[in-house]
Design a protein that fits this description.
Blueprint lengths: L2 H20 L3 H13 L3 H20 L11 E6 L7 H17 L25 E6 L3 E5 L4 H4 L3 E5 L7 H12 L7 E8 L2 H11 L9 H11 L14 E9 L6 E8 L6 E5 L3
Parallel strand pairs: 1-2, 5-6
Antiparallel strand pairs: 1-3, 3-8, 4-7, 5-7
Length: 275
């Protein structure tokens, strides 16, 4: 890969992480404000007020919204003029290392067995880079904290169990309780294969949450009837939104994945000019 393009990709990756961990997308912040307007429980209102104050302080100070700045999940869109090369992955990793030092990001990435910390949020398989074709070269980052990620689930249902999908989603949130720092955003992947359903669920978190289709709305309402509320202390809003992505699957299977995200549904996109 051309060295100047590698540098621009690394710069874009670092900028995207800096923006993602210090500011929320407008639709997410608006959803939190809407939840506060609708809330009547005094404890829940206090928690939402604290969250919104935290967002404003992070924005003004340029510091992370949460001490858990997550693991680096990155989506790269490649136009036809840019070849898929190992240098692309190296450039993204360089951007992650830069952001870890400059923002700073908490060094979260460790070896799965020895638990040795790399100190720079890179390692074998990290950052997790997903590449797809597109018209413009872009880098989208999705910092994923452990509190929410640990509550995520994949279930392999029988083809006859389509009606159980809401049960799977609601039970996932119920068993998670306060641990993912609700109100949550849920990405749901339906169909595909075991691994594709999980990938779809995570990618769904990148979609705008200011609109839901009827199926997504019904899932969100079912979750909110749990009454867990902000930080699990009770209230009307347990989920800000549910976003669903689906794929065709084998006639004998029905994979369903739920990727749980905390109220800080952080993501940001930077575009890279290609000479």
């Amino acid at each position: 890969m051309d060295p100047s393009l590698s540098l621009r990709i690394a710069d874009a990756t670092a900028r995207a992480f800096a923006r993602a961990v210090t500011t929320l997308p407008p639709d997410v912040e608006a959803a939190l404000a809407k939840a506060l307007d609708a809330e009547t429980d005094p404890v829940a209102r206090g928690e939402l007020e604290n969250i919104l104050e935290n967002i404003e302080l992070a924005r003004r100070s340029g510091l992370p919204l949460c001490q858990d700045t997550g693991v680096p999940v990155v989506y790269v869109t490649l136009p036809p003029s840019v070849p898929l090369e190992q240098g692309l992955y190296a450039a993204v990793a360089d951007g992650v290392r830069r952001a870890t030092t400059a923002v700073p990001l908490r060094p979260n990435v460790v070896d799965p067995l020895t638990r040795h910390n790399s100190g720079d949020n890179t390692g074998e398989g990290m950052p997790a880079v997903h590449v797809r074709p597109g018209d413009r070269l872009s880098v989208t980052v999705l910092p994923k904290g452990a509190g929410a990620e640990n509550m995520s689930r994949v279930e392999m249902l029988l083809p006859s169990e389509v009606a159980r999908i809401p049960e799977v989603v609601v039970r996932c949130v119920l068993e998670a309780g306060a641990r993912p720092c609700p109100p949550v955003v849920l990405g749901v992947g339906i169909g595909g294969t075991f691994d594709l359903a999980a990938a779809l669920a995570k990618e769904a978190l990148l979609e705008p949450i200011d609109a839901m289709d009827p199926f997504e709305t019904s899932l969100c309402e079912a979750v909110n009837r749990l009454g867990l509320g902000p930080m699990g202390l009770g209230g009307a809003t347990t989920a800000l939104a549910v976003k669903v992505r689906r794929a065709a699957c084998h006639t004998a299977s029905l994979p369903v994945a739920v990727n749980v995200q905390c109220w800080a549904n952080r993501h940001a996109t930077e575009y890279v000019e290609v000479a």
